[in-house]
Amino acid sequence: MDKRKSLGKNILGKLITYVSLIITFSFLLFPIYWIFTMAFKPTDDIIKYPPTFSFQPTFKGILYILGLEEATAVGTQTGFQSYFLVGMKNSLIIVISSVLISLLVGLPAAYILARYKFRGKENIAFTILSFRFAPPLLVIIPLYLLFSKIGLYNTHIALIWVYQLISLPMILWIVRGYIEDIPVEIDQAGLVDGYSRIYIFLRMILPLAKGGIAAGTLLAFIYCWNNFIFGMVLASTSVQPVTVQAMRYLTTDTLMYREIAAICIGAALPLLILAAFLQRYLISGLSMGAIRR
């Protein structure tokens, strides 16, 4: 009898847990489901109240943002639109370049800050971190004036330069924490074997810190990709990223709900692809098995 009661309690506990998880995930994933279905709904079904879950799918929104469908909504420009493609190209150029430069600069800097002791080390680290926490509105006007003076306004170089304020501090601090957790005996063993500091850093430390590098890269990419204010103020249509180009579908006479939803899906794809690619590194151990006895 006791075993039956215990078994019944376990089953009831698991059932409550599973139901709670299903309800929680349904609540969290519903906005994603709604924005996805909105990209394929006819306009009448999007604005219908109460909302409808059954509709005849249409690909006009997808074709429109890809420049394969002419504008039909009132207040939109005539002809084929390609704001989404222009924004995606600009976002990929700006964000990938920014993250790569931040990795080239941030990884050696993280190693130096983690391994070497010198005067003012923490002050340098916190100064770099302060760039990430500074409100964008605090620096946007000086940057606008500076870039206008030196001829970098409305260029990819200007946005890549500014996006370092977002990506470099994040990569440096995350990777620094991972490297500090790697036993210093690994460096000492490499030095005893006659290897240079550069070899130790490239061939011994970086492979062990790949989890931190993956986490820092992913977070830096996400924050740079989602940035809005810098691209809106420091560039015009030809250079603005996809987050700003989405505003082109907000007209004075209508809101192109379907097209904006399609842009949201398209803009999220690079983030999902990168997250899927880095997932195995994010969950891997940092230095598990690095020292074998």
Care to describe what's here?
The protein is mainly α. It has two domains: 2-65, no CATH class; 83-282, MetI-like (MetI-like fold), CATH 1.10.3720.10. 70% of the residues lie in helices and 0% in strands. It has 13 helices and no strands. Helix 4 packs parallel to helix 7 (156-181), helix 7 (156-181) packs antiparallel against helix 10 (210-226) and helix 10 (210-226) packs antiparallel against helix 13. Mean pLDDT is 82; it is low at 72-80 and 285-293.
Throw out a few tags for this protein:
13 helices, 293 residues, mainly alpha, disordered C terminus
* Domains (count): 2
Q: Report the span from N to C terminus.
A: 51 Å
SSE sequence, one letter per element: HHHHHHHHHHHHH
Average pLDDT metric: 82
Name the CATH superfamily assignment of the largest domain: MetI-like
CATH class of the largest domain: Mainly Alpha
Q: Roughly how many Å is the radius of gyration?
A: 25 Å
* Shape by Cα distribution: flat
- Count of DSSP strands: 0
Strand percentage lies at under 5%
User: Major β-sheet, in short?
Assistant: none
Q: What is the CATH-assigned architecture of the largest domain?
A: Orthogonal Bundle
Q: What structural class results from the helix and strand content?
A: mainly alpha
